[in-house]
Task: structure prediction
Amino acid sequence: MCGIVGYVGPRAPLDVLIPGLRRLEYRGYDSAGVGVVVDGRVAVVKKEGPLQRLEAALEGSGLDGAPAAAGAVCTGLGHTRWATHGRPSDENAHPHTNEDGTLAVVHNGIIENDAELRRELEVRGHVFRSETDTEVVAHLVEEFYGPGGAAEGDLAAAVRLALRRLKGAYAFVIISAREPGRIVVVRQSSPLIIGLGEGEAFAASGIPALLPYTRRMIALNDGEMADLRPDRVVITTFDGTPVRHEPFTVDWNEEQAEKGGFPHFMLKEIHEQPEVWRQTLRRRLLEDGTVDVTETGLMGGPAAVVRRIAIAACGTAYHAGLVGKTLFERWARIPVDADLASEFRYRDPLVGPDTLTIVISQSGETADTLAAMRAAKERGSRTLAIVNVVGSTIAREADAVFYTHAGPEIAVASTKAYTTQILALALLALAFARERGTLDGAQARALGRELQRLPVLAEAALAAEPAVRAHARRLAQHEDVFFIGRGLDYAAAMEAQLKLKEISYIHAEAYAAGELKHGTLALVTDGVPVVAIATQPPLLDKTISNIREVQARGAWVIGVATSGEGRVGGVPVGGGAGVGAAAAASGKTAAAVAGTAASGAAVNAAAEADWAPTAPALSGVVEDVIAVPATHPFLQPVLTAIPLQLLAYYAAVERGHNVDKPRNLAKSVTVE
Ligand code: F6R
Result:
């Protein structure tokens, strides 16, 4: 989620690099840097903090503002960093160079095998100056590019050889003072755009950076690299096979460009979820489904002796915590209390050395959450923070941090941060379950593999957008909406109602479906909208009874149910014609079938690995159904969130509100 800009051509490079980085600022960053080829080396200036600090450092550096001599070709690159590996600091800011400073690289994404490569390169005499994975790229390329290297003096060939060793998801730009007038750019699962000018070429991680200079662009695909010179661009696959790309012309205005073509950041961030989920899971979920969260320092001892978990968070993050409570209790069999941080801090919480306190915060700055964490620490509890913003106060003060890697979230209403918080909790709960022996290896790996499927299922969930939009139009005409559900569907309902009310200003309430009849049912009258979330097979019959209850009072019900593939006996079923459909046809609900399969699962809920889509059971009960791809019921809230985020978004748009900046709300709540 960092920003990359590269330039080769006749302009003074800072005239392209600094404005380019500024146009990527909206993505968020914690440090910035540039590198320019001058006098046989790459002159690098980089600073922690906002771009102004970099600009101040550039003043009088000799790089600032000097127009290139007529006919000269300039080469440079720039970067805004959003820390993932290593804290935000001058040293960790990009660009990173080889030892003699003749080669420089800026990078987005993660090099997964950096530790292994770093060790290898250190043995070969390379000295590292930063904590980043990026620096490995500079040293590795130098191995092939430097004197006696297998691709001596040919940057593109050296990069190609280095790519064979790199694992992970990355985009990078690399330049060399030994070959001024040349930039090599690479893309593997992280965006990289090439801009084509007259006698100049550009590269960037996002279109907005390039708009003032050119509108003719090429978007590299995964596994492609490009060799840019002022007068030609050569694109190949990593193994050197030439690739032809037809340039496209961008007709976005500036504002659209910032939002990646979406009308609002919120919609952009909803759509980013498949990509950022991959980031959250990367490195922590091995190919066979094994979870690795050793980064928390809680494995190999602490997790096994924890007697209780206390979760404290605010707003949406608290709703993620409610899902986490179920995951820890059912998979790892640890008692969990989930509290609003603003309540936890004042209730003299019973936490101590046998308790792990987990705080959850996108910003890492929320005052109540920070205070809750401090209160837990004072009582001797170990603290683990699930945080998005690297280097934030909560991240710094917690005993252990688990970053969600969702990238900057700009819209005030949290979307991708919430779903990545749930993924983080799922990873941790699975790791705890293994450590404590409450799930065996095969069960945990099966669940891990289901986690791996989620990004693809998220893409399918986004396909419901047009249908959801139609429901939102109708919903926007109302002033009161109820969201009901049971179990994890109730947790999902809590988040859905918050999303709707904070941006559409429609009054919304979440109710545990079974609780309605104890009072609130009095408010359900003719035409009142009720969004009934019914994704949990074992609870489906009960939820359907509650749907009938509100229908009997005249409610307009929108059902949210699962479709697609389920699993029974470890075998995929569904796609509309599996157990769910068959069960519906036979008059039995999918829940009854899944419930039978799950009935022996008293010891551990993980044995409930059988489930069937629930949508078929709603047919004939509810006219309006939003279908969500089915996954393991415990992971379902993460997918269910997507159409409900879209429902809130389109209701707010319909009402003409400022979706990204709702009234009375701030992105980071640093006051009590
Ligand atoms: C709602 C929302 C808020 C935040 C809450 C906590 O969409 O974004 O409810 O979840 O203010 O913020 P963080 O996660 O930064 O601690």
User: Anything to note?
Assistant: The chain has 22 helices and 26 strands.
